[in-house]
Amino acid sequence: MTLGADRIALIVVGASLGGLSALKRLLGALPAGYRLPVVVVQHRAADSDDLAPALQRACAVAVREVEDRDPLRPGTVYLAPADYHVLVDRGRLRLSTEARVLHARPSIDVLFESAAAVYGEGVLAIVLTGASRDGALGARQVKERGGSLVVQDPATAEARVMPAAALAGARADLVLRLDEIADVLRAA
C-alpha cells in the first residue's frame, strides 16, 4: 500500500473526537529517523497544553508544538497549538488567529488547504476520527491539486462524522484501518 512515496514531501493529519488515541497508534508506528515532516491538527480546548508530551511518550520521532515560522524538518511531528491555525509555507509553518472554521481553531481545512496550495502533489493528507466536518473541504483541495488522501475507515473510527464527510467530499486514494494507515506512513 504505497502512494508514490518518492513524490511525497509533507504529511498532514487531521483528527478530532477520539484523535489522541488514534494519533498515538499512528504516530507511534513511525521509526526514529523518519524521512518526512508530519503536521497534525487535533481539535482541542483553547486552554489545552498537554498534547505534545502525551504523544511524545508514544513516539520514536520528535514531537513538538508549532512555533510561528518553524522550519519543516524531516522526522518531526508538528502539532497545531491550542487556539491557533497552522498554515504551510514553502519549507516552514505559520500560525494564525484568524476566525474559527466550523467552530474550530486549529482547523484541519486551513492546514490541508495551505499544504495543497504550496506542495500540490507532494502532500499526503490523512483524515482520522472526529465528530465534525472539518477537513472535508481541505481534503478536496488536496485531491484537486494532485495530492494523496487517506481516510480512516469510518467503521473503525471512534467518531465517524469526520472520515465520512471527507469521503463524501473527495475521492480518497485509500480507506483503511489505523494499523493499515501506519503501514502506508512507514512506506512513505
Written account of the structure:
This protein is an alpha/beta fold and 188 residues long. It has 6 helices and 9 strands, in the order βαβαββββαβαβαβα. It has helices at residues 19-27, 51-56, 108-119, 136-144, 161-169, 178-187; strands at residues 10-15, 38-42, 62-65, 76-79, 85-89, 92-96, 123-127, 148-152, 174-176. A 7-stranded parallel β-sheet has the order 3-4-2-1-7-8-9, with helices on both faces. Strands 5-6 form a two-stranded antiparallel ribbon. Helix 4 (136-144) links the parallel strand 7 (123-127) and strand 8 (148-152). Helix 1 packs parallel to helix 6, helix 3 (108-119) runs parallel beside helix 4 and helix 4 (136-144) packs parallel to helix 5 (161-169).
Summarize the SSE layout with pairings.
Layout: E1 10-15, H1 19-27, E2 38-42, H2 51-56, E3 62-65, E4 76-79, E5 85-89, E6 92-96, H3 108-119, E7 123-127, H4 136-144, E8 148-152, H5 161-169, E9 174-176, H6 178-187
Parallel strand pairs: 1-2, 1-7, 2-4, 3-4, 7-8, 8-9
Antiparallel strand pairs: 5-6
Run of helices and strands: EHEHEEEEHEHEHEH
Please tell me how large the radius of gyration is.
14 Å
Number of continuous helical runs: 6
Number of strands: 9
Strand order of the largest sheet: 3-4-2-1-7-8-9
Q: Termini separation (Å)? A: 10 Å
Residues in β-strands, percent: 15-25%
**Global structural class:** alpha/beta
Name the overall outline: globular
Largest sheet: 7 strands, parallel
Report the helical percentage.
Answer: 25-40%
